[in-house]
Structures are given as structure tokens and as C-alpha cells.
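Revision sheet: C-alpha cells.
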Amino acid sequence: MLTLTYEYKLVPTAQQVEVIEHTLTVCRSVWNYALRSRKDWLNSRKSPVHACSLEKEYIIPADAPFPNYHHQAQQLTEAKKTNPILKSVNAQVLQQILRRLDRAFTDMQSKRLGFPRFKNQYRMRSFVYPQMLKDCLQGNQIKLPQLGWMKFRKSRDIPEGFRVKQARIIRRASGYFIALSLQLDVKVPQPFPRGHPRGLDLGFDKFVATSDGEKINRPRFLKTLQRKLKLLQRRLKKKQKGSRNRHKLNQKIARLHQRISDTRKDWHVKLARYLCEGAGMIFVEDINLISWQRGMLSKHSADAGFGQFVTILQWMCWKQDVYFATVNKDGTSQECPECGTQTGKKTLDIRVHSCPECGYVTSRDVAAARVIRNRGISAALNLKLSEVGQILDLKENAWGDGLAGACRDKACLVSTLPSQESQKQENLIVRLGISR
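Predicted:
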């Protein structure tokens, strides 16, 4: 089963906006009530049997079951019989809110994420219609439960044969959006290792350094608009809470944040597409990117968005039929890509790799990218690192790394890249800030 998600901007009427806002308000109430029930049950079990809690807690019987999704779904059904506000919202939408809360508790335990939080009127931003009709689309209009036919900006056509399975309404600072989940009953095989291998080394000095010798500068998305953002937040401090001017200023700040995130994501997509061109295999390190945002460079790590870029790159590789894999991150800057000699640890101020054994000298980031490439080839084709050097013809070519040889018995592992690039690629290189 192939699943795609297409996002469009909605053009709702004033009446439809009222229905969307009312639905978000009811969804927020259901989320907060269900979360409060779970927290009360957990807090009642924290105190020992021979002592009372220092804070007031609800007395819940010992035989009362934990309020999981099924228990709370039954309570929601009973509450709708006496509460007309709950009855005014689609039943499946409220059930999806309970499912989302249950999934948040599961992720908290399995993925060690934070405890779910209560939602205010601005934090509840989306709701889902899990089932859609077959003929819900007509041109640039979509039919939604309780909302009727709604126009949207059809920025791209829906692929032929795909069926809309569910729709998510999203409220953002710039308006309302809809994310359509499209499905097609077909099996798409995963890309297999072949073609030109390319290793990528992520870092703060250069955003990406490739094994082909390219270095891509890291744009400062937040820094370019930080001064304007700081001035707006300083004005917000002086506004009275709950006032209309404070709400308007909050919306302006939210639009600025969305502008930063949209610019970052657009740059990531263009860079991922550029890196996939001419490559048959792409390898990156298996870095714990969450830990990067907990150190002294947390602001720069969040501004760069390494995790989002790796996710987009993996999706782009699947779309462009390029093999994607992660390799072990340990010691990539301590190993020589030519002879495999361990050169020892390097401090961050040392930006040049110099091997004492073979005399190979290159940039530290490029050397690490080539080590990642060699490890990826070794893992993808079940080869030893010593055999990888026999496959790759390490001679200088137009891309700074002589991957000119070809291996017929390994599914054409290495293939040369075109010596001349089109004008479109050259323009993209200038926009991305790539140096060779």
C-alpha cells in the first residue's frame, strides 16, 4: 500500500471558519478532560497506603481500571447523550482526539518523550476526519463532514488512481490548511544499492560536506529575522494580557515564525533534491540529533534543522530511486579514507585531515564524508573496508574524487557523473551556497 500526503491551503467562508474554530474548541475540551482523568488516576497511585499526599488528590477506588482509550471512548459516548456541545461535533473527530492522547502516552513510554500537556486555545491546531467519501473531490473543492463543499488552492494535481482516505484540518498563522492522505493499492520496491555512492557529513561549520568534495554553507534562518522577532517580542511584553492588541501582535509573531520554518523547509527540500541528482546511493551518520539540541549549540542546531533535513532526504531518496542508509558515526573524523589508518582524535579547531601514513591531505569534513561513503558501501554490499578501495578508482576527476571506475559484478556500483551541469543546477548551486 502506497500512502502519500498532499497539503493544500483552504479558502473557507466565514461560516466554515466558525465551524472549524468551534470544532477545535470542543476537541481541546475533550483532550484536557481525558488528560485530567489519566493524571488523576496516576496521582492517586503515587501516595503510599499508610500516608496521605501533600497535595489534594481525588480518591479513586483501588479496583478502578486505568482510563485507556476504550474506557474513555465509552465515557464520551455516554456524555454525548446529555451534552449538546459534544453532539455538535463529528463523533469520529472526537474519537481521533482520544486516539492521539493514547498515542502520546505510548510514545512517552516507548520513545521516552515528555508527558502530554494540556492545550489552550492556541495549542490545539488540528483535527482529523478519518473517513472520506469516494467522490469528495471536484476540481478545487472538497466535501467535508459538517463543513460541506470547501474551496482550496490546488497547487498540484492529485495523482491518478489515488483515493483520499482521510483529511486533517490544520490552523496556522497564515490561514487554514488541509492535509490529504492518499492511498493506492500497489507495492513499490525499495531502492537497491547501485550507481554513484555519496557520503554526507553534517556539521555546524558547513551544513553538509559530501564525499565528492562539495561543501554547503549553513544558512542562518533565524538570525536573519532575529532582530525583527526580538523587537516584536519586546513590544508584546508591554501589552495587556487578554487584550485585542496583544492577540494581533501574537499573530504577527506567529507569522514570522512560520516564515522562518517555511524558508528552512523549502531550502531542505531543494538541497535534498540536488544531492540525489547523479547519485545511486547516499549514506549519512546515525547521529542522535536530539542530543545536539541539548548542548551549548542547541540554538544553532534547532536553526539548522538537521533532523528535518535527514527525514526529507530519506523521502527524496525513495522518490528519486536512490538507496539511502545510515552508518556508524564513531570515529569518522579519526580514520583516513585512503588507507584506513587511525589518525587519532582531532580538536574542533583542526579543520584539515593529514594522514601520517599515506600523506593524504584534504578537508576534515570531506575526509569524514568519504569515510562514511566507504562504510556505507561496505555495509550495503557486505564487503570489507579493504575491498572497498579496490572497487573505487581513487583518481581525481571533475568532482574532486575520482569515482570513475565501474564494477560490473557489483550491480554497477560506480558510475561517472556528467562533466557539465545544466544552467538550472548552476543556479541551484548559487542559491544553496555550495563551494567546491
